[in-house]
UniProtKB/TrEMBL annotation:
The protein, known as: Pirin family protein
Key word Transmembrane present: no
Superkingdom as given in the UniProt entry: Bacteria
Pfam families cross-referenced by the UniProt entry: Pirin, Pirin_C_2
CDD domains: cupin_Yhhw_N (cd02910)
Record keywords, A-Z: Iron, Metal-binding
High-level lineage: Bacteria, Pseudomonadati, Bacteroidota, Chitinophagia, Chitinophagales
Boundaries of every Quercetin 2,3-dioxygenase C-terminal cupin domain copy: 149-235
Necessary cofactors: Fe cation
Length: 239
């Protein structure tokens, strides 16, 4: 029987620094909840809003796969690998921090808010050579279907990372439905609603709700209103 965990949006950790407002699905920084440390290899899912011209100063990471998915506005990324790039909605960035990376992440616009999802995964390979990758995704291709953003395959659609994980996003009309089949035995799936509302295997989910399911092979996803958008993370489960 499938094992589930429901994270309602209002129960997430929350911090407001003025320039940054962030909601934490899992324990992060000053938010600690022993029941919310991770979902398998999924360690961090932060829902960040950054004021114009502000951002995260240069800081280090190692041995973590870090994904940024812009939802509104644009982010400027700089790192000690020599990358200076801007990412906006319709694009996705992955950083394999491996042996160590220093980077900064700023709102690229001085007069507009930036909103993005910051996601961290435990890698399946430690101390790799650090890398940065960015992919452009045609948002129109996710209408009433799940569009692949990330996979373990360097030659796959979107971009890739050091983990047996798959990311998909879909934007659905009301009552549109799809079936999602788990990619790998032993993986679970974490569903995160970006906007609108969905039913996932009968569980109703609203904006920014998260829902993890272990021990399943397939899930039914049905939009309950128009222009509803969902992120699906297929991820290894381990104790």
């Amino acid at each position: 029987m499938a094992k589930t965990i429901l994270h309602k949006a209002a129960t997430r950790g929350h911090v407001n620094h003025g320039w940054l407002e962030s909601h934490h699905t899992f324990s992060f920084a000053n938010y600690y909840n022993p029941d919310r440390m991770r979902f398998g290899a999924l360690r961090v899912l932060n829902d960040d809003t950054v004021a114009g011209g502000r951002g995260f100063d240069t800081h280090p990471h190692d041995n973590m796969e870090i994904i940024s998915i812009p939802l509104e506005g644009a982010l400027e990324h700089k790192d000690n690998l020599g990358n200076t790039v801007v990412t906006q909605a319709g694009e996705i960035q992955v950083m394999s921090t491996g042996t160590g990376v220093f980077h900064s992440e700023y709102n690229a616009n001085a007069d507009a808010t930036a909103r993005f999802l910051q996601i961290w995964l435990f890698p399946n390979k430690l101390n790799v050579t650090p890398r940065y990758d960015q992919a452009t995704i045609n948002i129109a291709d996710r209408k009433n279907t799940l569009q692949q953003l990330i996979s373990p395959d360097p030659n796959g659609e979107g971009t890739w990372l050091y983990q047996d994980a798959w990311f998909h996003m879909g934007r659905f009309d009301k009552n549109a439905s799809t079936e999602y089949t788990v990619k790998q035995s032993g993986n679970g799936v974490y569903f995160f609603v970006i906007s609108g509302s969905f039913s996932v295997n009968g569980q109703e989910l609203g904006p920014r709700d998260g829902y993890g399911i272990e021990d399943l092979q397939q899930a039914n996803i049905t939009a309950l209103e128009d222009n509803a958008e969902i992120l699906v993370i297929d991820i290894p489960i381990f104790s």
